[in-house]
Write a structure and sequence with these properties.
By secondary structure, the protein is mainly alpha-helical. The chain contains 16 helices and no strands. It is globular and about 65 Å long.
Length: 410
């Protein structure tokens, strides 16, 4: 695939979203109100309250950017080729993660929570594959559920979206562009909300297990579809998103303040539920916040990030490898640091540092492997490309670049 120009702000959004994911997962063990793989005896309500905000929109942003990536990278590719490429690019790392990279997470949990005394090697050979699926058993896709859902979206939602490429559906594409080009774009969060509420009687809980997670799969499918459709009409829509970026930011700030007052803060007096017990009101407010945050971040990033960055490009190349290994590194760091009694904030800082260092080391090792093995680790070797044609200085903003394919990691 040729890379002639890139929309550099999308690289920056992807890298930032996955960086936030590392911060979030390093925090979860210290939340007083959540049961996780490994839990600290010392917790922080302040840390949990602070992370309640990105918890509302971080996954929505990831699915949105993933949808954009698929649309840009495969604009002219036949559907069959696109699906085959995605199954290889996502399926092989998913299988490798379930068989290898995730095993230490489960072992650490079994040792700390259940008192298991065997070695990691013994656990992997004798228990991991033989006792059924997690949580009653051991085998799991853990955080890689996101990748499994992307595969499901490529197989189910993408064929429907590709219908818009046909001349018979031109009227629908233009209608979507007209709607999204107006202030009505802010009402689009009602689509994932309506889909979730319609399916909740049959799928009442968010499980990340796919087969029994229909209500939340519909939400992730909506964000993915929004990203795909936005990228497909990027030149038409990006100007309006940039122009409304301050409006989007004001709406996001207002929703954040409201949720902090009535739902997130300790001792909040209003009973609209929370992440563990979601009411219709809570779902509506958090999905509205997710959508306004996406529009805010896209608007400001597209306005201000137009030049390439070697650091962002490097991190963008490694972001899928980082995702594959980051939670295992978080759990391993917690496993060894929590018994040391170093204090919450020292432990938290060391977990983040160890995770970042481990991610970078894993990427550096993986990128030196032969192409098939590197692909299993989430690293796709670059293909040689022709030297880019210089762009005049006045045409450097990302939003003025012509749409061209760019490579994505997930």
């Amino acid at each position: 695939m040729q890379e002639k120009t890139r929309l550099h702000y999308i690289d920056a959004l992807r890298v930032s979203a996955f960086g936030l994911l590392i911060l979030y997962h390093a925090s979860v063990a210290f939340f007083p109100g959540m049961h996780w793989l490994i839990e600290s005896a010392v917790t922080s309500s302040a840390l949990e309250t602070a992370m309640n905000h990105p918890r509302a929109w971080r996954l929505a942003l990831l699915f949105f950017v993933s949808g954009m990536g698929v649309a840009f990278a495969f604009r002219t590719a036949p559907l069959g080729d696109l699906i085959r490429q995605r199954l290889i690019r996502l399926g092989l790392p998913l299988a490798a993660a379930m068989a290898l990279f995730i095993v230490p997470q489960v072992w650490c949990e079994r040792v700390m929570e259940d008192g298991y005394e065997g070695s990691l090697w013994t656990f992997w050979l004798t228990r991991y594959f033989t006792e059924g699926k997690y949580p009653d058993g051991n085998i799991t896709w853990a955080h890689m559920w996101f990748v499994a859902y992307l595969i499901a979206l490529v197989l189910t939602v993408l064929p429907v979206l590709k219908l818009l490429d046909r001349p018979a559906f031109t009227w629908m594409s233009r209608g979507i562009e007209r709607l999204a080009g107006t202030a009505w774009i802010y009402a689009l969060f009602l689509i994932p909300l309506g889909a979730n509420l319609a399916l909740s009687p049959w799928f009442p809980r968010e499980t990340n297990a796919l087969y029994n997670d229909g209500a939340w799969f519909a939400v992730w499918a909506s964000w993915f579809a929004f990203g795909y459709l936005f990228a497909r009409s990027h030149q038409t829509l990006i100007g309006g998103v940039i122009a409304r970026r301050w409006t989007s930011a004001a709406l996001a700030a207002g929703l954040s303040a409201l949720l902090a007052t009535i739902a997130w803060g300790p001792g909040t007096g209003w009973s609209i539920g929370g992440y563990e017990e979601m009411t219709i009101s809570f779902k509506g407010l958090t999905l509205a916040l997710a959508w306004t945050m996406i529009l805010t971040l896209v608007g400001f990033a597209a306005r201000h990030i137009g030049a390439p960055s070697r650091l962002v490009r490097y991190l963008s190349d490694g972001v899928f490898a980082f995702y594959i290994v980051h939670q295992t590194l978080v759990v391993a760091a917690l496993f060894y640091l929590l018994p040391q009694g170093l204090g919450l904030w020292t432990t938290y800082a060391l977990v983040i540092a160890a995770t970042v260092a481990g991610c970078l080391l894993f990427f550096e090792l993986a990128r030196r492997l032969p192409a098939p093995l590197a692909l299993v680790c989430g690293v796709q070797h670059r293909r040689p490309v022709a030297a880019p044609v210089p762009i005049p200085a006045q045409a450097t903003p990302a939003v003025e670049m012509p749409l061209e394919p760019f490579r994505i990691a997930a």
